[in-house]
């Protein structure tokens, strides 16, 4: 579904650029695709395999969902694979963004130190939790806390970029984090972390 929508949309961009079908077939059109520096933003790297011969996909990498969404809004990129929270906030502010579809399954995880007593979301109470502000992960952990009768006031949120979460957990700077892959997988496979929950697994 996402691939069909992407290629259809990319074709529309190309068609809007040229006057005649013969020119469209002869020239190569580049579509800029924004992606996060995360494992579950890998699918765009394979889009060109399914694109028409005259369509090139250029990947532009971003570290922040908000930066990626802003690139779509300012037309620095034609499409983007970013967190739903950034898209919702942009749409609510009247920005011209459209959500095409979901990209990954189990792309985020709540991870605590291996062997610790933090085994459920409720156990996060009183703990230092790494969260990247403005991310989809922040939205989901706030909702999960609410579902457990807790709020952000019951934890100590620590502002941590996704890429630094595994190292901070290993050093003991935080007790847990709400991260995006490959962070959770790295923590678990290295033996440093343990899975608390996949808060979103469509």
Could you explain the architecture of this structure?
With 202 residues, this protein is α/β, with parallel strands linked by helices. The protein has two domains: 2-92, no CATH class; 108-197, D-Maltodextrin-Binding Protein, domain 2, CATH 3.40.190. The chain has seven helices and eight strands. It has helices at 2-15, 21-26, 65-73, 84-92, 136-147, 165-171, 183-189, and strands spanning 29-36, 55-62, 79-81, 108-113, 128-131, 156-159, 176-180, 193-197. A five-stranded mixed sheet has the order 6-5-7-4-8, sandwiched between helices. Helix 3 packs across helix 4 (84-92) and helix 6 packs parallel to helix 7 (183-189). It starts with a helix and ends in a 5-residue tail after the last strand.
Biggest pleated-sheet summary? 5 strands, mixed
Give the helix/strand class. alpha/beta
Unreliable segments of 5+ consecutive residues? 1-24
Average pLDDT level: 84
Number of domains: 2
Q: Give the proportion of residues in helices.
A: 25-40%
* Beta strand %: 15-25%
The ordered H/E elements are HHEEHEHEEHEHEHE
Number of helices: 7
What is the count of β-strands?
A: 8
Radius of gyration: 19 Å
- Please give the alpha-carbon distance between the first and last residues: 15 Å
The general outline is elongated
Order of adjacent strands in the largest pleated sheet: 6-5-7-4-8
């Amino acid at each position: 579904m996402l691939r069909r929508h992407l290629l259809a949309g990319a074709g529309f961009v190309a068609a809007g650029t040229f006057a005649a079908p013969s020119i469209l077939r002869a020239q190569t059109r580049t579509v800029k695709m924004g992606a996060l520096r995360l494992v579950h933003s890998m699918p765009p790297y394979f889009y060109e395999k399914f694109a028409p011969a005259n369509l090139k996909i250029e990947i532009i990498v971003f570290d922040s969902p908000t930066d990626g969404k802003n690139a779509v809004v300012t037309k620095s990129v034609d499409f983007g694979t970013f967190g739903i929270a950034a898209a919702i906030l942009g749409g609510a502010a009247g920005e011209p963004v459209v959500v095409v579809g979901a990209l990954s399954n189990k792309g985020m995880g709540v991870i605590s130190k291996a062997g610790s007593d933090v085994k459920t979301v409720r156990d996060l109470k009183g703990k230092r939790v790494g969260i990247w502000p403005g991310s989809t992960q922040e939205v989901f952990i706030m909702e999960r806390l609410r579902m457990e009768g807790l709020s952000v006031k019951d934890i100590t949120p620590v502002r941590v970029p996704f890429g630094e979460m595994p190292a901070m957990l290993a050093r003991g700077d935080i007790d847990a984090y709400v991260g995006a892959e490959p962070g959770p997988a790295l923590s678990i496979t290295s033996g440093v972390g343990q899975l608390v929950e996949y808060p979103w697994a469509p």
